[in-house]
């Protein structure tokens, strides 16, 4: 294919455009360079030949850079690339070997904040479209770019944008903003993400801390909170809240086959964390099934009383625990919150206060959907091999895409799993950027021929 040869011979252009993107800081957490970077991305799309505009909700919300190009011959299918132009803060600066916004290239690596997450991924999508336009003057299917600027701060407004621009964004498939490549250079094709419910439970007993000799009279809120959270979960990980699993459906036959085929080295994993066994004594397939499809109830932090050096005999006035629940498809965060509240009440813990920080539903693309096979074929051809993954164990804003656009969402990309994203010396590998750009071309091709 001419298109793929074009990518081989234009990798220097890809790298220099990536460097330009990295050199424009765009830290959403500090609102640094967000407007500037959105303009730069728009320019890049225009240079490629993609019609582009800046979409806004209102002041104070980062704009979305939208791009669109229609296919002259096959216009019945539309592929969306969802990416983000914002990055994580680069601190601590002193741990970087090169300035974080320099985009320094050393051999096969381009370093900088955003090199992989997500400017590297974004550039592969743009260059794939460019390769088609430069060699054939057309694209095999319609292309839409939705590039947001608040991903690293939680994509607070993506749902509102999707609702507002539902018709403009309509498409037949979404390529997600990230995609990992494992240590054996196999891209992981992700079909979903878990949801998340983050809450804080607290108990206040008295108006001030007391001398611990008074523990014969004054109730300790830490004990109280421990008793309450002990009722939430069994030691094997099962969540004991009534109806917690009510809507959860079991994995399909195909999902199970995918999970069976997924590589997972239990020993290497345990060694990495210095642990001897898994929750509930899980082994083999059960461990893999849990990663993809099991809800969790995790204590993220517990604070009460004195935890400094030495001894202090104190009776704390308050205790607080932060808990995160990973959710699986069909679990509605709002419903789960009311089930949690109900649970505490019926168990006699009405004195436990609940504060909800964050609720996000899970998303999963049906593994039988034809788009899955099209992406898998493209990944196998460009990387030589690939791995299907039913669901990432983590959370991302995939649910509104699946729900509002009714389109399958798949993550596939160029991010080497040890490329230090969110950390100092983040880098992108040039060989993986090249393979991913080719992969994006083949996905466009596969969607285009399957009219
Ligand atoms: Zn990130």
Notes on the protein architecture:
This protein has 451 residues and is α/β, with parallel strands linked by helices. 34% of the residues lie in helices and 21% in strands. It has helices spanning 2-9, 11-23, 34-48, 119-136, 158-164, 221-230, 253-261, 266-273, 284-293, 333-346, 370-383, 399-404, 430-449; strands at residues 51-55, 64-69, 78-84, 105-106, 109-111, 142-148, 173-175, 180-181, 188-190, 192-204, 210-211, 298-304, 314-315, 318-327, 353-360, 363-364, 387-389, 392-395, 409-410, 415-416, 427-429. A six-stranded mixed beta sheet has the order 1-2-6-3-7-19, covered by helices on one side. Strands 10, 12, 14, 15, 16 and 18 form a six-stranded mixed beta sheet that branches. Helix 1 packs across helix 4 (119-136), helix 2 (11-23) packs across helix 4 (119-136) and helix 4 packs across helix 13. 45% of the residues are buried. The mean pLDDT is 96. It binds zinc ion. Residues 88, 117, 152, 421-422 line the site of zinc ion.
């Amino acid at each position: 294919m001419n298109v793929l040869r074009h990518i081989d011979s234009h990798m220097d252009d890809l790298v220099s455009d990536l460097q330009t993107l990295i050199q424009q800081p765009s830290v959403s957490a500090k609102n640094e360079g967000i407007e500037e970077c959105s303009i730069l991305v728009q320019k890049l799309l225009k240079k490629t030949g993609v019609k582009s505009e800046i979409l806004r909700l209102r002041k104070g919300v980062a704009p979305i850079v939208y791009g669109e190009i229609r296919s002259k011959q096959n216009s019945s299918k539309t592929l969306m690339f969802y990416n983000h132009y914002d990055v994580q803060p680069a601190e601590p600066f002193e741990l970087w070997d090169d300035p974080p916004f320099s985009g320094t290239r050393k051999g096969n690596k381009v370093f900088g904040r955003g090199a992989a997450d997500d400017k590297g991924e974004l550039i592969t999508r743009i260059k794939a479209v460019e390769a088609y336009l430069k060699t054939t003057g057309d694209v095999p299917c319609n292309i839409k770019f939705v590039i947001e600027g608040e991903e690293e701060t939680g994509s607070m407004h993506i749902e509102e944008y999707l609702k507002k621009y539902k018709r403009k964004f309509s498409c037949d498939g979404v390529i997600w903003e990230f995609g990992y490549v494992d240590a054996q250079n196999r891209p992981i094709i992700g079909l979903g993400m878990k949801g998340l419910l983050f809450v804080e439970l607290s108990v206040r007993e008295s108006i001030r801390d007391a001398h611990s000799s008074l523990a014969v009279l004054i109730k300790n809120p830490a004990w109280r909170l421990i008793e309450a959270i002990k009722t939430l979960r069994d030691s094997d990980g099962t969540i004991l809240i009534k109806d917690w699993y009510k809507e959860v459906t079991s994995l399909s036959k195909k999902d199970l086959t995918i999970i069976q085929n997924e590589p997972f080295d239990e020993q290497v994993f345990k060694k990495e964390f210095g642990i001897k066994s898994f929750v509930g004594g899980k082994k083999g397939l059960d461990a893999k099934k849990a990663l993809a499809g099991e809800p969790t109830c995790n204590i993220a932090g517990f604070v009460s009383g004195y935890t400094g050096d030495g001894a202090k005999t104190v009776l704390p006035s308050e205790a607080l625990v932060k808990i995160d629940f990973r959710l699986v498809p069909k679990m509605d965060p709002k419903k789960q919150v009311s089930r949690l509240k109900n649970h505490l009440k019926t168990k006699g813990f009405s004195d436990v206060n609940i504060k909800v920080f964050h609720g996000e539903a899970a998303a999963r693309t049906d593994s039988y959907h034809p788009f899955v096979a099209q992406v898998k074929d493209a990944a196998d051809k460009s990387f030589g091999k690939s791995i299907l993954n039913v669901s990432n164990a983590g959370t991302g804003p995939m649910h509104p895409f699946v729900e509002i656009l009714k389109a399958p969402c798949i993550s596939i990309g160029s991010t080497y799993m040890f490329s230090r994203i969110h950390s100092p010396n983040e880098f992108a590998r040039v060989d993986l950027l090249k393979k991913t750009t080719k992969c994006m071309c083949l996905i466009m091709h596969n969607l285009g021929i399957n009219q």
